[in-house]
Amino acid sequence: MSRTKSRPDWYEPGDVPTSIRNATRDATIAAEVVTDVLAEHEFDAPWSRVLDIVKTTRANLPESTSEFARRSELSTARPPPVRFVDIDDISHLSPTDCAVVLGTALSRYEGMFRTADDVDNLVIDLIWDKQHTSVSLALFPRVKDAPVTETHVEQVVQGDTAPPTGRSPSIVGIVSNAGFSEDAQSTAAESDIELFGQHAISRWLSDAQLPVSSLETLLENDRSPEEIEEFVSTLPDLPQSIREQDPIEDIAAKTDVQTISVTEAKATERIPVRDQPSSAGQYGTLYADAGEDGDFGAFERFEERIGGDEE
User: Fold this and answer.
1) Which of 153, 174, 218, 240 is the most exposed place for a label (fewest CB within 10 A)?
2) How many other CB atoms are there within 10 angstroms of residue 166's CB atom?
3) Residues annotated as region Disordered (predicted)?
């Protein structure tokens, strides 16, 4: 199910540069939000690739495009903006610490969470208790070149995913910032295991807006669940438009297969493989019809054109 319910005001159909410029003028619109809309309406490419394009384009825009920058020119120096926990921080955490961070992020939508580090024989790391259901998640925070394999999925399939007390999970999933191999995807699909990759993690953390400084509070003080809940209560409430979304159901489980050829094949049938022989296709487009080959240089030329338009 798509998270995007309607087209936002900043989005100009068919005009990616203008859409990104419009969104950048509002400092509250995260790059992930822009990526979701453009990935749905403009690009047939992996979500992470579209995110790279959005970030690169934003970086090449004049500083005055940003609402924050324009206001700064008229005021005294301000402290640097707060940096929030993002997907790059996840790869450095242990599964237990990752469970605390992602559990905190998910509980910002609703409910509470428990970690499974103190429960024997469970193959999952995080239990998210929503109002009416529970979700069990096995977490694999990893470096980008170490995707989750079929062996890891089999461990979850064959292991115990239900805590000894409380509700049995209605959803069992695997979360990894490093993606999943093709065999891992196949085994998960056959076993009714949901896979959550870069897209889901990035969106959860973007929505939750946990300051990086909160990592020390959450991880280094051995806090109890009650203390963590108290800390979360001190954070600003999420907007209603975010809290009413289901981060599991409304953010589709988009897997991120590690190898480029597999990723492209899984993400869209219309992204060509570089070494694949091509017939005459449409030159200079970001994507083509299913019966045409794409143009590999189009993305790079697109980014260069964005930079040139602003000079």
Assistant:
1) 240
2) 11
3) 272-294
Residue among 17, 232, 268 nearest 111 (CA): 232
Q: How many residues does the chain have?
A: 311
| Rounded-to-integer distance, Cα 255 and Cα 266, Å | 8
Contacts of 47 (CB under 8 A, 6+ apart): 35, 39, 198, 199, 254, 256, 267
Strands 126-129 and 171-176: unpaired
- Residues paired with residue 84 on neighbouring β-strands, in sequence order: 211
Chain segment 255-279, per-residue pLDDT in tens = 444 433 334 334 333 333 333 344 4
Rg (CA), the chain: 21
Instruction: State the DSSP string of 49-110.
Output: HHHHHHHHHHHHS-GGGSHHHHHHHTS---PPPPPBP-HHHHTTS-HHHHHHHHHHHHHTTS
Considering only residues 73 and 39, tell me which one the structure prediction assigns the higher pLDDT.
39
pTM above 0.70, yes or no: no
Domains of the chain in start order, with CATH, are 1-81+274-311 (no CATH), 87-243 (3.40.1350.10)
